[in-house]
Design goal:
Preprotein translocase SecY subunit, 438 residues, SecY_CS, transmembrane helix, 5 strands, SecY/SEC61-alpha
Length: 438
């Protein structure tokens, strides 16, 4: 406890770090305040927005703003969608690949294209959101007037959230877009834990404590999955140093993440899991089998749902790892820098070796990622409330763990730069090597 208090004093004794923390808290407060401001022309008390499947994921990321019909109902998800689209284009089209290789100027061009694309994505998503989730009974103005005004307000709200994320990155602790998503997720935790405590009643104190202990070990497992790397030794050619011509060589490591895809496979898989139940619901009245399929895949605790969910995560993990980690490019850059893997020839042999290692570590990483994704369903089967079970795994847990690790790494870098002790006695805090698309 004494060390913790001393660390807090050290953090706030650094003026720049103190200013960045206060700026971050201010921007977060603005973001949370906006999530309670309802769209003009709607009565929030008459709303009954369904939050199942993908809609539930959007509601979690927006901190409940989606179900409240807030001006921040779409949050920064349109920006995330646009960023993913631009990332895929940089891997498919030479024009975008060229911009990516232009350095800072190319990055600014890509950011500008992403912002413009975000506006179009937000308009499309806002029209879908307004027409499918806001009933006429909840409106106090005409539908045409409400839709016209709300599209403008939702687009402005998304752009403002994007601006807040950029300000957190520039003026705050950093990683602003991921920070806003994490805050939206964490904002639901106090109500979820109170709901879990009430469901246990007076005689379920022991079970409640065991649930918290289980959550602790799940979080530690997620931390291990996020930080786990396979280090490939790299030897650089010897260079002449000093007037006497001493030759020295440098030995480094190429860290390959066991979970290089991050949370993206779970997001992609969840986006597709609503399709079986939606398609089957159209034929439910004509076929008992279709009705059974619709019922089964609407229940996220069914074994059929989780098997398909896990398979999709495995597929998307390999797919996203393949497009985000390029062994040929890594081998070429290593060769140009005079580096080589001991016992492996530079060039094609090096890229083949990296591909082989990547394949061997991606499979267990994908299995663990799928296990984390279905943990909420397992927790629900053991009697944990659905709201609290969401914190036992899935996208929510991985995003929270990743952002917290990144934030601690930023804080520790300031402490070490000012010659203070780090946050951990056991070693440096390691964040994620890849953040959310932003």
């Amino acid at each position: 406890m004494k060390r913790f208090i001393e660390t807090v004093k050290n953090i706030f004794s650094i003026e720049e770090l103190r200013t960045r923390i206060l700026n971050t808290l201010l921007f977060i407060a603005i973001f949370r305040l906006g999530s309670y401001v309802a769209l003009p022309g709607v009565d929030p008390s008459r709303l009954d927005v369904a939050t199942d499947g993908l809609l539930g994921l959007l509601d979690v990321f927006s901190g409940g703003a989606f179900s409240k019909a807030s001006i921040f109902a779409l949050g920064i998800m349109p920006y995330i969608s646009a960023s993913i689209a631009i990332q895929l284009l940089t891997m498919a089209l030479p024009y975008f690949q060229k911009m990516q290789k232009e350095g800072e100027s190319g990055r600014k061009k890509l950011n500008q294209i992403t912002r413009v694309l975000t506006i179009f994505v937000t308009v499309a998503q806002s029209l879908t959101y307004l027409n499918t989730t806001i009933p006429n009974e909840a409106l106090i103005v005409s539908r045409i007037q409400f839709t016209t005004i709300s599209v403008i307000v939702l687009t402005a709200g998304t752009m403002f959230c994007m601006w807040l994320g950029e300000r957190i990155t520039d003026k705050g602790i950093g990683n602003g877009i991921s920070m806003l998503i994490m805050i939206g997720i964490v904002s639901r935790f106090p109500a979820a834990i109170l709901q879990e405590a009430d469901s246990r009643g007076g005689g379920g104190v022991l079970l409640f404590v065991l649930t918290l202990v289980a959550l602790y070990f799940v979080v530690m497992g997620a931390v291990a999955l996020t930080r786990a790397v396979r280090k490939i030794p790299i030897q650089y050619a010897k260079q002449v140093v000093g007037t006497r011509g001493a030759a020295v060589g440098q030995r480094q490591y190429l860290p390959l993440k066991i979970n290089a895809a991050g949370v993206m496979p779970i997001i992609f898989a969840q986006a597709l899991m609503f399709i079986p139940s939606t398609v089957a619901s159209f034929f439910a009245e004509k076929s008992d089998l279709a009705g059974s399929i619709a019922s089964t895949f609407s229940n996220y605790t069914s074994w059929q749902y989780n098997v398909l969910f896990g398979v999709l995560i495995l597929v998307f993990t390999f797919f996203y790892t393949a497009i985000s980690v390029n062994p040929v490019q890594i081998a070429d850059e290593m060769k140009r820098g005079g580096g080589f893997i001991p016992g492996v020839k530079p060039g094609k042999d090096t890229s083949d070796y990296i591909s082989s290692v990547l394949d061997h570590i991606t499979f267990p990483g994908a299995i663990l990622l799928a296990a984390v994704a279905i943990l909420p369903a397992i927790a629900s089967l053991f009697g944990v409330t659905s709201a609290f079970a969401q914190f036992f795994g899935g996208t929510s847990l991985l995003i929270m763990v990743g952002v917290v690790l990144d934030t601690l790494q930023q804080v520790e870098s300031y402490l070490l730069m000012r010659r203070y002790e780090g946050l951990m006695k056991s070693g440096r805090v390691q964040g994620r090597s890849t953040a959310l698309p932003a």
